[in-house]
Amino acid sequence: MHKEILYNCSMANQQLIKGSLSTIVLHLLQSSGEMYGYEITQKVKQLTADEIKLTEGALYPTLHKLEAEGTLTTESRKVDGRVRKYYRLTEDGKKATADKMEELEAFLLNMQRVLGLNLKISS
Amino acid sequence: MRTLSREQKEQLANHLAKKPIEYIELYNELYDHYASSYENGNKQFEEVLRELDQHFDYQKVKTINANLLKKTKKSVNEIYWKEFKNFWRWPQIVSTLGFLLFGLIILEFLPIKVVMWSVIIPLLIFNVILTFYGLILKHRHKFGNKKFDSAHYQATQHYLNLPTSIFNLSIFLPIMTLQSSLSRIQFYEKYSVLLLLLMMTFFTAAYIGFKVFRTKIKMQYLR
Question: Which of A112, B7, B75, B191 has the largest CB neighbor count within 10 A?
Fold first, then answer.
């Protein structure tokens, strides 16, 4: 029973994360400047004390999509004998991040009102 | 931090080569992800492969791979457009105008034939070599017994051919404008601004093509 509840929570978490994956990526890149795929997954793990684990299979299509949109720019560098691709926000990306963060904040505030949650949201 | 041994590197390359990856960009990204997971953790190498394979199963990789070219085309268009706009923005506009002025002076004092053989033709040859070099890169290296295509090369191909197209246009333009009574040289001496514009587009396309090739294509095949 306990296991089932945990599984359902984690499934629900995954659904919520999927919807906010772009926002998470954009925000992390805004604070860190540039990051590579694996680093992004580890940063999320670290910030949420292992509560949220990004699905790697969903991360790369999101990164590729954001790059195609011109929100992110990339630079490949040789690191330890292999090619590593670093992602960085473009000028348009910085604006998109601010918009997405505002959108998410408004959404969370509305959810708080509707569901009567007691969340403290700070930017 | 531990690092992959030579055998593990080979094993990882062979492991990824079995996945439905066509493009070197995706191969490099997944290789780095798998390698970083092992190097920054404390799990056994085989365990890391098994765990990550759950995220990157056959179908998932196939989907990412299938969408990559479409997304790369979009991103390459974005790069070209951004780079082209940069030519007309401060402070690059100073060098662009300087280049235009230099072009006008050259056309004024040097015969068009000299400009053609000393500047345009060598640059055109360089651009054609660049396109062929992309093909060589693709066929030269094996990664885990597999050769990978470059999504950027495919997406950039028509842009890499742009200088050749502009050159061809400059040859046919005098005929197309029904001024066949004039020789090509006379035509461009009469309309030197048109030649300057063609040259400008030619140089811009060649410059951006070279930049994209160096940073997005050649880089991926580094070993």
Answer: B75
